[in-house]
Amino acid sequence: MRALLVQPQITPLTGTVEVPGDKSISHRAVILAAIADGQSVIRNWLPAGDTLATLDCMRALGVPIETRGDGFSWELTVDGRGLRGLRRPAVPLDCRNAGTCIRLLAGLLAGQSFSSVLDGSAQLRRRPMRRVCQPLRLMGGNIQDHDGRAPLTIEPAPLRGLEYRMEVASAQVKSALLLAGLYAEGETRIHQPATTRDHTERMLQAMGLAVYQADNWIILPADTRKLAPLDIIIPGDISSAAFPLVAAAIVPHSQVTMANVGVNETRTGLLELLAAMGGRCQVSQSRLSGDEPVADLTMGFDELHSTEAGGDLVVRAIDELPVWAVAASQAAGVSVVRDAAELRVKEVDRISLLATELRRMGVVVEERPDGFTIAGPVRLRGAEVDCHGDHRLGMALAVAGLAADSPTLIRDAACIADSFPGFAETLRALGARTEWLDTSHPHPNPLPQRARGQTPPLSLGERGGRG
Known about the structure:
467 residues, 4-stranded mixed beta sheet, 15 helices, globular
């Protein structure tokens, strides 16, 4: 068991750093390279817990993958097997905690000529899978779930194209149906109720497929024969960059630059939210890497005011809302999130647990069925908190700890490596004081009494503002 100890930040955060490669793109790159005709090279691939689950699944499906590099950036050489070259796995495929892995592979494996089973951790088994299984069945797929959840059992079946309107805006469902559509007879048409990340479509286009969008319909033409290999450099993950960016926005006099970050417009909702709050984020060195837009992002401290997030903006900032909540706690007024019920079916119920843990640090949070409200600014207090095995909740609490009045201890924080290996080290490179602790053996509690919750909480009047 590992805990992360975060000391209050008494100096500005400064410097230029890079974050690891984009997790969403890393998942998709190794899956699509596996069914390409020929050898693909993928640079700056993210070796995190979730993406390594996908890599291991593709190897179990008979795909030779060579890895080079160490640390948080790998280069992969993938010998693509072609659309029909995967082989039956000897055992159930273990997707661990990775929802992207299991949902995308459900689409890929629905069109294969062999049977397979997709499973994962207890946490993954709690996540909803019927949203992807139901449309795959409409395509003719023979896929069985367990009360709408994993494990998923898939048997061979001929697929047919379909016209499908998604009830919930989900890039994972859309991508699963596009992967199944590669094996289907006829055209596949998918309607998304709001714009979702389009990494799968961009990558398929880079591999020679004429995927296109008309209004909110994504259309995959019939008669796909083969995919050209990839040769790409994956940009830095904007969902990971979000944490240092918000830290710079709330720690006085800070200014940090995140270099080589992917700024796909389907993923930049957080930047728009921070701008609406008065945050100063400069975008520079805009360019394309492959088919993905990339830029350097510089964020400085500023006085923030409240804003509201809903509709399409929430879809484009769904993974960043936990850390945005920390920014909202330092903004004047009441900030509101609505249309975000999807947060309740992530790795954990992110609305409920985010509210629970932020309250320990003095944040005034009100839960709503599809979101929450936060009243600010408040003086954050150090506390012993728990991220409940959720990587984004753990990193959001760490950012809050930087702006707190005493140390913050985040329990069960090893899961941060699911998406951002090197998170604590990145913060240290900007001047933060973070330390990993082994909590598997008894040791003195590193927090002062008040941070452990052994004294009464501060009243609203005592919390004050940002100082």
